[in-house]
Each structure stands twice: as C-alpha cells, then as structure tokens.
Design goal:
With 384 residues, the protein is α/β, with parallel strands linked by helices. The chain is built from twelve helices and 16 strands. An eleven-stranded mixed sheet has the order 1-8-2-3-7-4-6-5-9-10-11, with helices on both faces. A five-stranded parallel sheet has the order 14-13-15-12-16, with helices on both faces. A hairpin with a 6-residue loop joins strand 9 and strand 10. Helix 1 packs across helix 5 and helix 11 packs parallel to helix 12. The mean pLDDT is 94. The protein binds adenosine monophosphate (AMP) and magnesium ion. Magnesium ion binds next to loops.
Length: 384
C-alpha cells in the first residue's frame, strides 16, 4: 500500500481542507496516523469491526489488548457507554479535552474487537487541534492506539510513525513533534473507587486533590507476577522496548543517607569531586548516580561493547563515555517526558547494544517517566 503523507502547515490552526481526505479514509474503514498532544495515534473507525482488526494488524498487536476510543466533544460520549458515573463526570469536566483516558462500562454500539472482548471501553477527548478536528470531520469515534509497531517506543514525531507504518496504512498526518511525549493517564471509573491503570500527565497528585480515595493498579509499580490477571490486558505485555538492553541506575536510601553524613567515606568522596567544579548546584545523589552510570558504561566501552548513556542537561558534562544523549532537564520533568521516546529511538538507530540511564523522582510527571523507563528496561533497576 502507498502511504500518503500530509504535512499540516500551521499545526495550531489546521485547515478543514487539509483533513477532509483523512476524515473520509477513517469513515470508510481505512487507517490514518495523526498527532495528539500525548503521542501519535493510529486511527480507525471505532465502530467498524474490520477497522479495529486492521489496527491490530498494522501494529502487530495482540488482539486482546484493547484500543482507546477518541471523541471530539461531550455529546459523543453517552452512546458509547452504559452510564457516566459521578467520578467520570467530574474528571471529564476537569481534564477534558486533555491527556486523560477513562474506562467506562461499554454500550452495545462498541464492537468487541475494539475493546479486546472486554465489557468496558477506554475513552479520551484529546486537546490537540489536529486530532480534535479530524475526529469531528470523520463523524465517528476514532479508535487510536499509539502509532508504533507493538513493543517499540511510542512515536512522538511523524518520522517515527513513518519508520513503523510506511506501506501499512493509508495516511500519516504530519503535525511535527507532539507536546507531552508520553501516553495519556488511564483511570478506570467503572467501579466504586477510581483506579489509575497508567500514569501520565494528569498525575496522581492531581487526582488525589479531587477524590478522597484513588487506587493504583499494582501493574504500574512493578512487573506482573506469573499467572496474575491484569485489569487491562495490555499491561501484561512488555512495552516501549528499545532494541538495546536498557538498565536504570537508582540511588539507594542508605547511600543517600551516607552522602549527607559528614565524615562518611561517600560524603567525603563526593564533596571533594564536586567542590570547585561547576557541579556545585547538583544534588550529591545526582552527582553520585551520574558517577556510577559513567563508571559502569566506561567499563563496558573498554570491553568493546557499544554502550550508550541517557543523561540530563545538568549531568551531561560529567560523562566521559563516548555515546551519551540528554533526555532533558532535571529541573523540568516536562522536558524529560517530551524527549523520552525520541531518545530511546535514537539509540536504536545508533545501534547501541546496552543503554544505561539515570533515574528520576516518582512524584508528579516523574511517575509517568519512571513507569515508561522501567517498562522499557524490563524492570532492570540497578541500586547503587
Ligand atoms: P495505547 O493506545 O497503545 O497507548 O494502549 C491503550 C491501552 O489502553 C491498552 O494497552 C490498555 O492497557 C488500555 N485500555 C484500553 N481499553 C481498556 C479497557 N477497556 N480497560 C482497561 N484498559 C484499557
Ligand atoms: Mg501503545
């Protein structure tokens, strides 16, 4: 199949005529990849069984891994769900349009192939002018998982989509680089207490401000135990995996304590390394983590292994290893989320065999960042 690429001239003000052909393709059962504020989506008519099957085919995605259905306004919601519970209404009012997906009991209108056979449906109203206008023009709800080959990092540029989807779908809409860079937060509102199924830019802290009680699905925090039944079937699959073996470095509580204890060996070592240099504004634990990552990477490099390091703007200069890329600024979690998948793909292109990465705090957007990095690493987290 010849894949057409449509470049949107002004991504904040797409013209209707730029999206009419895409809308027709979706309405008639074809597939169009398009930008959203989170990552690029691979869109098809959510009410058309065969379009959903095509999506699974193009992604190479297991068919029990359900799709998220995208809408452009509140009026499109009621026909897709059995009921809109109070929590769902509050979250829609607060965060839609935006990077939040909610899981509802599904109506009979939504085919089983879209929900992977579940009696629930995941729905999001994106806050992206291209996505929103495309859905509105298509006139149907749009099922759109991330537009990557299953198991690869999600695409944040049209070039990423092209790498995975050229020849497999009718059209790619090029709206440049997306803003947020990690997938939407998913909250299940079909039960008595809202449950976070996937962390994203709508953070746990934001949800805690609204509800007395919010649960977190255990699959977010660590690997699924063998035989465990995840709430979302997709959670059992290895996700976001770069081609290289990725490992994260995390500083132990015990080490942090030593780093802050005057007279301790680690405290003296880090103080002497940091003093006088331009690293004075780094936290000792950040300096120590970078030191350990570099040490491990240099050892690999000397052994002839193609090893890359994921660092940050603040720590970049500390590394002596040849292959290093900054994932963003520690001072701005948003910049880290924004660059995360692009950096993983870049290391794929560079042919790295191993990637060592710094880790980040688990709070706010850091929760989503660490969730994606840990999954990409297959939960290889080295405590130093
Ligand atoms: P993606 O669109 O590739 O980011 O993946 C969509 C994810 O949404 C899936 O992997 C599921 O984990 C989740 N999801 C979709 N539908 C449901 C549902 N009905 N219940 C729970 N999770 C869902
Ligand atoms: Mg995905």
């Amino acid at each position: 199949m010849d894949t057409k690429r449509v470049i949107i001239k002004d991504r904040n003000h797409p013209k209707e005529e730029e999206l009419l052909e895409a809308a027709r393709i979706v309405r008639e059962g074809g597939l169009v990849a398009f930008p959203t504020e989170t990552v690029y989506g691979l869109g098809g008519n959510a009410l058309d069984e065969s379009a959903a099957k095509k999506i699974y085919g193009a992604k190479g995605r297991p068919s029990d891994n359900p799709l998220i259905v995208h809408i452009s306004c509140m009026e499109e919601l009621p026909s897709l769900v059995k009921e809109i519970p109070g929590a769902g209404r509050i979250l829609a009012e607060t965060f839609w349009p935006g990077p939040l997906t909610m899981v509802f009991l599904k109506s009979d209108l939504v085919p089983d192939s879209t929900t992977g056979g579940l009696n629930t449906v995941a729905i999001r109203m994106p806050d992206d002018p291209i996505a929103s206008q495309l859905i509105r023009l298509a006139g149907v709800p749009v099922a759109a998982p991330s537009a990557n080959t299953s198991g690869r990092p999600s695409p944040t540029t049209a070039d990423h989509v092209w790498q995975d989807m050229d020849g497999k779908i009718e059209m790619v809409i090029d709206g440049g680089q997306v803003g947020i860079g990690v997938e939407s937060t998913i909250v299940d509102v079909s039960g008595p207490v809202p449950v976070i199924l996937r962390p994203g830019a709508v953070t746990q802290e934001m949800l805690d401000e609204i509800f007395d009680q919010v649960f977190i699905d255990p699959a977010i925090l660590g690997p699924m135990e063998d035989g465990a039944r995840p709430k979302a079937p997709g959670m059992k699959y290895k996700h976001y995996a770069p081609k290289a073996e990725l490992a994260l470095f995390e500083v132990k509580e015990e080490t942090i304590e030593q780093l802050y204890t005057p007279g301790n060996r680690l405290h003296s070592f880090v103080s002497s390394q940091m003093s006088g240099g331009k690293n004075w504004n780094l936290k000792p634990e950040t300096f120590y983590m970078a030191w350990k990552v570099n040490e491990a990477a240099m050892e690999m490099e000397k052994a002839g292994v193609r090893v890359g390091v994921i660092c940050t703007d603040e720590t970049m200069d500390l590394y002596t290893v040849r292959l290093k890329r900054s994932i963003g600024k520690r001072a701005s979690e948003a910049s880290v989320a924004h660059n995360l998948y692009g950096v993983l793909r870049e290391f794929d292109d560079l042919g790295a065999d191993y990637i060592y990465s710094e880790s980040f705090s688990q709070s706010h957007l850091g929760g989503a960042i660490m969730n994606r990095l840990s999954k990409a690493a297959g939960y290889r987290i080295l405590q130093v």
